[in-house]
Design brief:
By secondary structure, this protein is mainly α. It has a single domain (2-105), classed as Helix Hairpins (Orthogonal Bundle). It has helices at 2-14, 24-31, 33-52, 56-76, 81-90, 96-105. Helix 1 crosses helix 4 and helix 3 (33-52) runs antiparallel to helix 4 (56-76).
Amino acid sequence: MDSYLENLLDTIKSKKNDDPSVSYTAQLHSKGINEILKKIGEESSETIIAAKGNNNKELIHEIADLWFHCLVLLSEKNLTVKDVTRELKSREGTSGIEEKNNRKIK
């Protein structure tokens, strides 16, 4: 799974400086971080709405949109999928409550 997301992120990064009039990804990057964050907010809301319904196909579609825009954010910030998976792996074996409390301490 990581390799597919890494490949997709590489594709997103490769389009970063393409012509914004022909590449949605380039368009997002050219508009900057605030536009990318706005799209993540929109996709998050659409994911929540879809989750409240009974249409799993719609929910999967919205989650895919959300993940895509999160990958655009990683690209914008020059981060990688491995950065995220490394963080998730570091939490393995730790309860969510404990992990959250540990973040408050740092």
